[in-house]
Write a structure and sequence with these properties.
This protein is α+β, with helices and mostly antiparallel strands. It has 3 domains: 3-287, no CATH class; 294-410, no CATH class; 420-481, Arc Repressor Mutant, subunit A (Orthogonal Bundle), CATH 1.10.10.410. It is built from 14 helices and 14 strands. The chain has helices spanning 55-67, 168-184, 218-237, 294-304, 309-316, 319-329, 333-355, 364-375, 381-396, 404-410, 420-433, 435-442, 448-459, 466-481; strands spanning 6-15, 71-72, 78-82, 92-96, 102-110, 116-128, 132-135, 145-148, 155-161, 196-204, 210-215, 245-250, 255-258, 271-272. The chain has a 9-stranded mixed β-sheet. Strand 12 (245-250) and strand 13 form a beta hairpin. Helix 5 crosses helix 7, helix 6 crosses helix 8 (364-375) and helix 7 (333-355) crosses helix 8. It is elongated and about 95 Å long. The protein starts with 5 loop residues before the first strand and ends with a helix. The protein binds zinc ion.
């Protein structure tokens, strides 16, 4: 089956990063607080409470519409989507139905074959987030669930794509590009837990379409799609049919599971929300000045800092990372950008991923000093990695943070400078401990010297300059012979 036979469309729900909720004044900054502490009669759906639209949320959604090249409708309208579920206190969700905010845009991603690919956007609409259920124990067997309405009424935009993606990898690229774009627009914070949820439509050409719901992480999208495509292909290979159905993604197990059919028998009975007037906001578009977006910043990084295309792509792929890079090199862009690009895009990201750590606690000032130590040749690359690891671990454990220089001094990592004594004693030890290698060396066996160099390197933990070490070791061996 050819790769082009896979068809993927995404529905992406993003929380807009406003200060207050969509229809009331409750604060959206609820994550650190106890359950049901950011609620009022409106977001609790008490009888008689009237929604008041948050203008800023609409302004944020309009920025997204412009950045994604969408057409904003003359008139859009809120509607009630009726269903009964404990996370929905009013028994209806205020959303947009047949008159969304905007339609018909696109987002460009790097295609798998190189070059750009245009993924069409079907529509963008604004809606409120429901509350959150906390299941006590297993969802199936747990005794009860708790409900937290702090999330109820947080503004969301739903961005629906056309089925233009041809692989899980493309879906991931689309999502990464979308996330970066929303962050550059300052309307979204991907670091906030649960700020993005994805539903995916997946089919193999000529077969029925399956909707996978409940994907809550960026990595989850690629995993869920890969699982689902394999499942569908296996069905077809065995001559069976793919059923048109909704499935849930179980993130911990990495599988999709058929949703019980009664969950599907929805009749949402949409009708216009009587408490909110239709929106006429298209004229706002002219007043929106978009900031520099990821593609433009990538181009600029290649020109201004001579970044390689791949480093420029990585560094500008996340707003925080791009800002971090520019702060690190600010003192001396010409002198530091090469080393900084490599050390951020290659080393730092790897070390952060390994620790499942975000960039936020890392201080650009300290990182600049690390890059300077490397540039001045004070430490080797190997020691640089060691210093970085100590820096990150101290931040992760919220310990007092040493400067890179402090770490170099404490761990005695500076290259030979003023420290030939330590290397000399490491050489002495290596010679004492390895009489056989000394015999081999005297017998002219190649490899014996390399073995000893390795032993000394181990003792000095890589801080010795290899050329200098070789010279000192050869001299010591000569001295012993004399
Ligand atoms: Zn409220």
């Amino acid at each position: 089956m050819a790769e082009g036979d896979v068809i993927v469309g995404l529905e992406v729900h993003c929380q807009l990063d406003t200060k207050s909720k969509l229809f009331c004044g409750c604060s959206t900054d609820y994550r650190a607080d106890g359950p049901n502490t950011h609620v009022c009669p409106i977001c609790l759906g008490l009888p008689g409470a009237m929604p008041v639209l948050n203008k800023r949320a609409i302004a944020f959604a309009m920025r997204v519409a412009k950045a994604l090249n969408c057409a904003v409708l003359d008139e859009s309208e809120f509607a009630r989507k009726n269903y009964f579920y404990p996370d929905l206190d009013k028994a209806y969700q205020i959303t947009q139905y047949d008159k969304p905010l905007a339609e018909g845009g696109y987002l460009e991603i790097d295609s798998d074959e190189g070059g750009e690919r245009r993924i069409r956007i079907t529509r963008i609409h604004v809606e409120e987030d429901p509350g959150r259920l906390v299941h006590m124990g297993n969802t199936e067997r747990g005794k009860y669930s708790l409900v937290d309405y702090n999330r109820s009424g947080i503004p969301l935009i739903e961005i629906v794509s056309e089925p233009d993606m041809r692989s899980p990898k493309e879906a991931r690229k689309f999502l990464n590009k979308l996330r970066a774009t929303l962050e550059y627009l300052s309307v979204f914070d991907s670091e906030k837990e649960g700020s993005l949820r994805v539903d995916a439509n997946i089919s193999i050409r000529g077969s029925e379409r399956v909707e996978v719901k409940n994907i809550t992480s960026y990595k989850g999208v690629e995993k869920a799609l890969t699982f689902e495509i394999t499942r569908q292909k296996n069905l077809l290979r065995r001559g069976q049919k793919v059923e048109r159905e909704t499935r849930h993604f179980l993130e911990a197990r990495g599988v999709t599971q058929s949703a019980r059919s009664k969950e599907l028998e929805h009749d949402y009975r949409y009708f216009p929300e009587p408490d909110l007037r239709p929106l006429h906001v298209r004229s706002w578009l002219d007043g929106i000045v978009l900031p520099e977006l990821p593609d433009a910043r990538r181009e600029r990084f290649m020109v201004q800092y001579s970044c390689s295309p791949s480093h420029a792509r990585t560094l500008t792929g996340e707003l925080r990372l791009a800002n971090f890079f520019e702060e690190v090199v600010a003192a001396d862009p010409r002198g530091l950008s090469g080393l900084a690009a490599t050390w951020i895009a290659d080393t730092l990201i790897g070390e952060l991923n390994y620790r499942d750590m975000s960039l936020d606690p890392v201080d650009p000032g300290s990182f600049t000093w690390l890059v300077l130590l490397l540039k001045q040749g004070t430490i080797t690359d190997k020691s640089g990695v060691e210093v970085l690891r100590v820096m990150l671990d101290q931040r992760l454990r919220k310990e007092a943070c040493e400067t890179p220089e402090d770490i170099v001094r404490r761990l005695n990592l500076a290259k030979t400078s003023g420290d030939t004594g330590a290397i000399a004693s490491a050489i002495r030890e290596a010679i004492e401990e390895n009489p056989k290698a000394i015999d081999d060396y005297r017998a002219g066996k190649g490899g014996a010297l390399n073995f000893l160099v390795g032993q000394v390197m181990k003792k000095t933990r890589g801080k010795a300059d290899p050329g200098e070490l070789n010279r000192m070791l050869t001299e010591s061996l000569k001295d012993r012979e004399a």
